[in-house]
Design a protein that fits this description.
By secondary structure, the protein is an all-alpha fold. The chain has one domain. It is built from two helices and no strands. The protein is elongated, with a radius of gyration of 12 Å.
């Protein structure tokens, strides 16, 4: 989760918080369901932290 926050924070410096959206690269089709869930859960937690930081 922290890696997502770090990468998104760097992107915020370039595009600003109002123009940043987190999303998957859609490369999860062949991954096991539990791995996909963990990745989406981490992205959701990162989004929550970023909202608190940049709100």
């Amino acid at each position: 989760m922290q890696q997502i926050v770090d990468m998104a924070s760097a992107a915020v410096e370039i595009v600003g918080p109002d123009r940043l959206e987190l999303g998957s690269d859609c490369g999860m089709w062949f991954l096991p369901r539990d791995v996909c869930f963990d990745k989406i859960s981490a992205m959701s937690q990162a989004a929550e932290q970023l909202r608190r930081t940049y709100a």
